[in-house]
Design a protein that fits this description.
The chain is an alpha/beta fold. It has a single domain, classed as Rossmann fold (3-Layer(aba) Sandwich), CATH 3.40.50.620. The chain has eight helices and five strands. The protein has a five-stranded parallel sheet.
């Protein structure tokens, strides 16, 4: 009995890419008729809300790129106690997910430069945004080249901030 070969499966490390390589990969995917989806976030303490978002985002196209906030970027956004998990570990966990085709770490305050450089077909964000998709960073630019924006609902009760708060509550006697 022959066992299936896993040699064709990408390793998580091979999915974490610098911009120049990812730009080339996106051009190849799009030239092959594949629709590229982009989402971004801190993804500190990966939880079911994140995994659900990534799975749903991947269903919006053929390939999913995750822009990951660097450690310095997370600290600027969330405060000095964050991130809990360093960027190389967060990138590795994201890259290990089957729904994710590429991960790129960015240090800028927003992913706008990445979005413009990569020119994805679809931009996906979690439901913490208003119903006005134009409020999402990169939405006007994406639409200028014919892309679309999709806002996905959050999984209730799961946010990294809430999980950290619950984990640090004193135990009841």
């Amino acid at each position: 009995m022959n066992e299936p070969s896993n040699r064709a499966l990408p390793t998580p490390d091979s999915k974490i890419m610098p911009l120049a390589i990812l730009q080339q990969r996106v051009r190849e995917w799009q030239a092959a008729g594949l629709h590229v989806v982009f989402t971004n976030g801190c993804f500190d303490l990966l939880h079911i809300g994140h995994v659900t978002l990534l799975d749903q985002a991947r269903r919006e196209g053929s390939r999913l790129i995750v822009g990951l906030n660097s450690d310095a970027s997370v600290t600027r956004l969330k405060g000095p106690a964050r991130p809990i998990v360093p960027e190389h570990a967060r990138a590795g966990v994201l890259a290990a997910l089957a729904a994710v085709d590429a991960v790129i770490v960015f240090d800028e305050p927003t992913p706008l430069e990445l979005i413009v450089a990569l020119r994805p077909d679809v931009l996906v964000k979690g439901g913490d945004y208003s119903a006005i998709a134009d409020n999402i960073v990169g939405a006007p630019e994406l639409r200028s080249w014919g892309g679309r924006v999709k806002i996905l609902p959050f999984v209730e009760g799961f946010s990294t901030t809430e999980l950290i708060a619950r984990a640090t509550l004193p135990e009841k006697s």
